[in-house]
């Protein structure tokens, strides 16, 4: 088996084996671009490293050295050779890119001898010693795990000693002294000398990269992005080129189009006389790429030619790293660029009209979960006008954020856990800040460019970020942010406009976004492609209207219990519950009837002629009663029911396991008059709206929590009797449907019988998941978290459907239901209806619609289209 590939042996289709970076380096080599030669140790070698107890097998070591020799022959340089030393970079690269999460080592191969060789060869001793000190520092940090700050202390002390302002002020002699200090530090920390043998350096570095696959931030990043732990990382060993060889050298990162707004123009940054990490690490704030055209006009022309070629070759926006060594351009990486949702939409639509991709590909290019960003608020224009603009930084990731300032990731996390909205303010973010960035509303940094980690990671998360804000002073120790004359302390409010890069004073109201233009275009393509219908879960006209604006084609679930909680009705609801006789109960229900009718009219009107499924009351009645003694006392005074009676009733209704208790159709079986009132309200509302608006409403009445045919038949009889009586009384006739939810495993198992009574099934996968696993919906969060950490669950089964188990029940119910009633309508209204992976599943098993909350409707439209492609 082959564990090591030279760059001329691979291609872009070998990402599983070579990782994204390795596969693309091979591809660029194949198409003749200037790529420094090297080789890739495969992801399989990484997995073997872990399988074999964190050791690299002898056969793999032998292959690495074989490829090293090939690299020496190709470059004409030799590892450890004083005359013409080969220096390499050692970089991670998984199949799915994880920017900045794993480790990199540059300048490997330098030692006390080769550094002199490099100095002589380049006639640039300062450069050679600077490279050596960088190498020791990186190797010490990554391989030996010595705190970076200890190296920084030695470095900064030297600068201070001479009163230098910039790193470049350090002389060769200074650098030599720093190296002596670094080596002493290594000896002290490790009890051994810094390794002088390049082959030892190489093997240690490769293993360190493998190890970094399992560092905390990489693990967290994989969890957040649902990247499996099992894929491992490859390691790329590439001969070094130097961007820090003086004013004719430099390094940069660029995108073929703007990853922020999608504009078609090279977008990026570069630094003269610097090495790669300086750009992405956000330590020096780089210059915009346009200035490269002035510094290196010919190289820039060549670069734009290559950028265009790469974009056409991959037919997608590319994110490229390059280095210029003494006026010669080298490509170090290309990959499909990460982008914000607005950029993703614009690029997809533009590339389709440029003829680069077709509509299907354009639709596939947008991450459904990502368009969430487009649906979220921007600042209220009026309030924004009034707001005081404090300063401007780089618009690193769009959107609006308002919240309280916190100066480190863990403070921000704690504050958010306690209900605050946080803005994370940092000098510069490092990958260790990831958890704090997740928690915060927005991120503000003093340093770092548009391609710094903070910017890249924030864009990926759709989180508002303003970076490289040079005019702010951040004192992380004192927890103070100074902007001009203002000093902000922890907990003070600021606002960020990630689209403009503005930092604003105080809190600013936010408003919903625009949904036209390119977004509307791509959604219309999605609508052409998909076959699943998209409905929404809504129980008031406001949500229903919002959902229609987002493209909902009906209501799949209207939960009627929410209406019972409204202030003027809850006393009647309680009277109904406390009633001693059916008669008393009917009295209370009579009071509720007009309210319910009004609710349903409002919803029908909001939905026009789109179908509406209304579900009969589901939750256990005790939810409508007070629980604590004080609450019971207060209520007894308020409604004039004796305390004892109220307390006794509460006691009676108490359930140990209410989710498995007196709820769903069981309520209607025991108190048919509740179902009667609801059925009457549903039909009367339809009659009136039909008359008043001329809408052809066909009510869909849904009976929840059914497990047996007879149960459904019982409640159905009540509903049919009521509906028919109302229709006759009102002298009208129209169709209506009666169906059920499939949310109890027994219902799925006996769906053929249930379908005899039901005209439609709507899968209530919240309850179905709960009951299939025997995991309480409400109390299992902690267990699920631990199960995910242990790898027992890949996903939370309450968010993404468990296709193996719960999915099997769904599939079975679909088949059994169709056997009995081929025309049966099938949909899903559990939370899974808005989850892209689950939507793919629903499409595959032959459901006709998914129903989800209004803000997930566009996500569902897109996911349904992708499922159909
Ligand atoms: C379900 O159980 O999936 C469902 C939609 O109903 P509810 O969440 O109201 O129980
Ligand atoms: Mg349910």
TrEMBL record:
The keyword Oxidoreductase does not apply. NCBIfam families: PRK05878.1 (NF004531), pyru_phos_dikin (TIGR01828). This is Pyruvate, phosphate dikinase. Keywords: ATP-binding, Kinase, Magnesium, Metal-binding, Nucleotide-binding, Pyruvate, Transferase. Belongs to the PEP-utilizing enzyme family. The active site is at 453 (tele-phosphohistidine intermediate), 829 (proton donor). InterPro entries: ATP_grasp_subdomain_1, PEP-util_enz_mobile_dom, PEP_util_AS, PEP_util_C, PEP_util_CS, Phosphohistidine_dom_sf, PPDK_AMP/ATP-bd, Pyruvate_phosphate_dikinase. Pfam families: PEP-utilizers, PEP-utilizers_C, PPDK_N. Mg(2+) binds at residues 743, 767.
């Amino acid at each position: 088996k082959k564990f090591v590939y030279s760059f001329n042996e691979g291609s872009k289709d070998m990402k599983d084996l070579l990782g994204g970076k390795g596969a693309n380096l091979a591809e660029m080599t194949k198409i003749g671009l200037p790529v420094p030669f090297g080789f890739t140790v495969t992801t399989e070698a990484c997995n073997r490293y872990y399988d074999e107890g964190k050791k690299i097998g002898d056969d793999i070591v032998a292959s690495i050295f074989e490829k090293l020799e090939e690299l020496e022959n190709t470059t004409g340089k030799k590892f450890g050779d004083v005359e013409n030393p080969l220096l390499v970079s050692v970089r991670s690269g998984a199949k799915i890119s994880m920017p900045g999460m794993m480790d990199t080592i540059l300048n490997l191969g330098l030692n006390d001898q080769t550094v002199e060789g490099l100095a002589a060869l380049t006639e640039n001793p300062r450069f050679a010693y600077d490279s050596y000190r960088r190498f020791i520092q990186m190797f010490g940090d990554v391989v030996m795990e010595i705190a970076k700050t200890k190296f920084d202390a030695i470095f900064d002390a030297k600068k201070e000693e001479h009163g230098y302002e910039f790193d470049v002020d350090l002389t060769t002699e200074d650098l030599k002294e720093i190296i002596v200090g670094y080596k002493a530090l290594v000896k002290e920390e490790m009890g051994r000398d810094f390794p002088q043998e390049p082959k030892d350096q190489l093997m240690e570095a490769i293993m360190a990269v493998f190890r970094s696959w399992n560092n905390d931030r990489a693990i967290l990043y994989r969890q957040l992005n649902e990247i499996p732990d099992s894929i491992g990382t490859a390691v790329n060993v590439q001969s070094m080129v130097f961007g820090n060889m003086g004013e004719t050298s430099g390094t940069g990162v660029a995108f073929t189009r703007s990853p922020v707004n999608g504009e078609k123009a090279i977008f990026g940054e570069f630094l003269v006389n610097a090495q790669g990490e300086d750009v992405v690490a956000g330590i020096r704030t780089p210059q915009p790429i346009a200035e490269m055209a002035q510094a290196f006009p010919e190289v820039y022309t060549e670069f734009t030619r290559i950028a265009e070629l790469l974009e056409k070759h991959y037919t997608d926006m590319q994110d490229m790293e390059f280095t210029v060594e003494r006026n010669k351009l080298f490509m170090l990486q290309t990959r499909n660029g990460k982008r914000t949702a607005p950029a993703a939409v614009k690029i997809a639509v533009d590339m389709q009209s440029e003829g680069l991709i077709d509509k299907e590909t354009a639709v596939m290019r947008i991450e459904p979960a990502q368009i969430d960003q487009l649906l979220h608020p921007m600042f209220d224009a009026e309030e924004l006008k009034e707001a005081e603009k404090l300063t401007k930084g780089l618009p690193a990731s769009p959107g609006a954020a308002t919240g309280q300032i916190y100066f480190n990731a863990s403070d921000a996390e704690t504050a958010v856990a306690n209900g605050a909205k946080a803005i994370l303010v940092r000098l510069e973010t490092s990958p260790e800040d990831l958890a704090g960035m997740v928690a915060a509303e927005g991120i503000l940094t003093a340093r770092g460019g548009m391609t710094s980690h903070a910017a890249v990671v924030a864009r990926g998360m759709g989180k508002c970020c303003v970076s490289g804000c040079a005019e702010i002073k951040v004192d992380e120790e004192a927890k103070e942010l100074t902007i001009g004359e203002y000093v902000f302390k922890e907990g003070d409010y600021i606002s960020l406009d990630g689209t403009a890069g503005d930092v604003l004073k105080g809190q600013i109201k936010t408003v919903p976004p625009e949904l036209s233009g390119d977004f509307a275009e791509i959604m219309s393509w999605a609508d052409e492609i998909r076959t699943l219908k998209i409905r929404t879960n809504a129980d008031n006209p406001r949500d229903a209207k919002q959902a229609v604006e987002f493209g909902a084609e009906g209501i799949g679930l209207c939960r009627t219990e929410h209406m019972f909680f409204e202030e003027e009705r809850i006393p009647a609801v309680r009277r109904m519950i406390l009633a001693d006789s059916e008669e008393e109960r009917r009295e209370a229900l009579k009071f509720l009837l007009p309210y319910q009718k009004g609710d349903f009219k409002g919803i029908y009107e909001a939905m026009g002629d789109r179908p509406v499924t209304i579900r009969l009351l589901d939750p256990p009645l005790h939810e409508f009663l007070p629980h604590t003694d004080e609450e019971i006392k207060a209520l007894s005074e308020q409604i004039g029911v004796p305390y004892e009676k109220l307390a006794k009733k509460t006691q009676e209704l108490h359930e140990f396991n209410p989710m498995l208790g007196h709820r769903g159709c069981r309520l209607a079986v025991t108190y048919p008059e509740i179902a009667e009132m609801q059925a009457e309200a549903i039909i009367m509302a339809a009659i009136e709206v039909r008359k008043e608006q001329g809408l052809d409403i066909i009510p869909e009445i849904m009976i929840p929590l059914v497990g047996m045919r007879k149960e459904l038949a019982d409640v159905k009889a009540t509903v049919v009797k009521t509906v028919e009586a109302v229709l006759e009384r009102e002298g009208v006739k129209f169709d209506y449907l009666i169906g059920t939810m499939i949310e109890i495993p027994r219902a799925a198992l006996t769906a053929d019988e249930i379908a005899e009574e039901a005209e439609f099934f709507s899968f209530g996968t919240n309850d179905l998941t709960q009951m299939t696993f025997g995991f309480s919906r409400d109390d299992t969060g902690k267990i699920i978290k631990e199960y995910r950490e242990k790898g027992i669950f890949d996903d939370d089964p309450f968010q993404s459907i468990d296709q193996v188990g719960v999915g099997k029940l769904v599939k079975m119910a679909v088949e059994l239901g169709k056997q009995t009633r081929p025309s049966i309508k099938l949909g899903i209204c559990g939370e899974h209806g808005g989850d892209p992976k689950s939507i793919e599943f629903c499409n595959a098993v032959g459901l006709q619609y998914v129903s989800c909350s209004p803000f997930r409707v566009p996500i569902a439209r897109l996911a349904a289209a992708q499922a159909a492609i």
